[in-house]
Specification:
It contains ten helices and ten strands. It has 345 residues and is an alpha/beta fold. It has one domain: 3-Layer(aba) Sandwich (Rossmann fold). Strands 3-4-1-2-6-5-7-8-9-10 form a ten-stranded mixed β-sheet, with helices on both faces. Strand 1 and strand 2 form a beta hairpin. Helix 1 crosses helix 10. It starts with 30 loop residues before the first strand and ends with a helix. The relative contact order is 0.14. The N terminus is likely disordered.
Length: 345
């Protein structure tokens, strides 16, 4: 999938004297900025044992001025060609912005969540797409799945580590509203968002209740299982699979087609206390509603009514025409924004 980045509405450069908005005033950014950070978590090793765990991230935000325009032409995520400003200064229209941390799916990357990051930025949010996977070398990757896909409980720790970094970042720390922080995710990223809300994972329940993996993943899974018996870093990671990764700084969670629902029992989900919105497509066969999204919605005490949309909504196995897929994702973006606006007051 192409990297995407684009311009919303380019107007004149904002003056440093512009009046900051107060609550209730309509937000209308002149342009959207995007930048990257090579974050790393020094409290954890990378899989090679040669340094800290890398958590490279992409940050989208309302921008103050034009700077290095980047054009995004990706009809799978955007309904039209879009331009954003690389490394531009953050907008002065608000003193503080809500922050949403965004988690991608298995075998994915941060660029694949650009559709949601960009939309939230146009609505006055700082959004950070977290890259959970390192390079193939860093992941010791031989097949389709990475070690970070396999040891998926490392993902919620990635979210908290990136939040730590953002709250200390020279460019963004003073512009983040600490009372308006949320997490969103797709597929395994949706499960990651639920994890940081306080869910407890059970490898045993996942193994006993999830269906057999597709044939094309079996070889990768078998190799990773063998590695989990011999690699000291992986062995140590496994010891923490059932830990709580609740991050009390995160006030709300939005999950699109969350996966591995059977790895979280009713008991493991009962202590979640923040608002959770789950959305799924009625044609999703990768993370079907009955086994995954519906399961989360049933057992999370603070879950809002499950939203069921037509089509696949993220786990796309069929070809789409034109901007059909991007329009469907735009609908999900609007739902996410509406939810966060309602609960992050």
């Amino acid at each position: 999938m192409k990297t995407i980045i684009c311009l919303f509405l380019i107007a004149g450069q904002l003056s440093a004297q512009v009046k900051t908005l107060t609550t209730g005033e309509q937000f209308n950014p002149k342009m959207i900025g995007v930048t990257t950070r090579d974050f790393a978590d020094s409290s954890r090793s990378n899989w090679l044992g040669t340094g800290p765990r890398p958590i490279r991230s992409v940050i989208w935000y309302p921008a103050e001025s034009e700077n290095k325009p980047l054009i995004i032409n990706d009809s799978s995520q955007f309904t039209e060609i879009t331009t954003v400003m690389k490394d531009a200064k953050i907008s002065l229209l608000k003193r503080k912005y809500p922050l949403i941390l965004i988690s991608h799916g298995s075998q994915g990357n941060a660029d694949q969540m650009s559709w949601l990051c960009y939309y939230l930025a146009t609505k006055g949010y700082i959004s950070v797409a977290v890259n959970h996977n390192g390079t193939a070398e860093e992941e010791k990757q031989e097949g389709m799945l990475s070690l970070s896909d396999f040891c998926m409980w490392e993902r919620p720790k990635d979210i908290s580590a990136v939040l730590d970094k953002m709250l200390r970042d020279p460019e963004f720390s003073d512009r983040i509203d600490p009372e308006r922080i949320g997490c969103a995710g797709f597929s395994l990223g949706g499960a990651t968002a639920v994890w940081v809300a306080g869910a407890i994972f059970s490898i045993k329940d996942l193994a006993e209740n999830e269906p057999e993996p597709p044939a094309f993943l079996k070889e990768s899974i078998e190799k990773l299982i063998e590695l989990s018996k011999t690699d000291p870093i992986v062995i140590n990671s496994l010891k923490h699979s059932a830990d709580s990764f609740r991050d009390n700084r995160i006030k709300a969670v939005f999950a699109l087609a969350p996966a591995i629902g059977q790895g979280f029992t009713g008991e493991g989900l009962k202590n979640i206390t923040i608002p959770v919105q789950i959305v799924v497509g009625d044609a999703d066969i990768i993370a079907p509603m009955e086994r995954d999204a519906g399961h989360y919605a049933k057992y999370i005490p603070t879950a809002r009514p499950l939203i069921i949309l037509s089509g696949e909504r993220g786990h796309y196995l069929t070809q789409s025409k034109g901007s059909e897929r991007a329009n469907e994702l735009l609908e999900v973006s609007r739902l996410a924004f509406s939810f966060f606006e309602d609960v992050l007051k």
